Request: fold
Amino acid sequence: MFQPHSLLWHYLWVAPNLLLGVFAVVLWRRGLTRSLRAFFCYAAFECLQWAILYPIDLVPSVPATLFWRAAWTGLLIESVLLFWLISDLVADVFGSYPALAHLGKLLIRWGGGLLLVTATAIAAFAPMDNRFWFIPAVHILQEAMYVVVSGLMLGLFATAGYFHLSWNRASFGIAFGLALNACVNLAGWAISANGGMPNQRNLLDLLDLATFHAAVLIWFYYLLVPERIPATPAQPLPESNLSLWNQELERLLQQ
Reply:
């Protein structure tokens, strides 16, 4: 049952990506693409990437190098979209502090670009078979992406909790799904890299697919299910060092 190309494997690869395609259409029809532009692009690209990779993987006559080249290209684009999406989440959470929000967006976007360049350079100079260099290159970039995304999302949740920053429903749902998917995938990579479950690698792959499916369902719930209006009015933001940091940063930017 738990084998690649089993019925469960097909379902876990097909279902969440089809749901993301439906999700993108719903966002577009509801006119939410402007306010959720980064997430809309991410959802649409994930569906498109699956629509390319899935048929390639199923056709036996297609060379493996074509699949891994397509996976490498798709992963590069996915990384760019992820850092764009996370930078928007940071800007939304720090929306009451415009200078800090702007600085956070710039740091994450430039940091994401640096990560892509570094991971590509490591993959290019690592000793490997020239014909199949895309396979370890994909793995290196995936590991780097999961490490950074996990750190950024956990750091964002910790910062928002410490300074009592408010989340809107959509941003919290997107961040929750991203954090869950990245952390579980990173844990799987750690187990595999340390020699754990050497003969059951397919179980870790299925866990990754199942986690992504759960993340998609989380996004559906938080973005499409109407939010209940609280009976009590929202409390004003408490005074914190963030206000001082934001004022100082605005002063520096104006000089």
Observations:
- The chain has one domain: 7-225+241-254.
- Residues 83 and 111 are 9 Å apart (CA to CA).
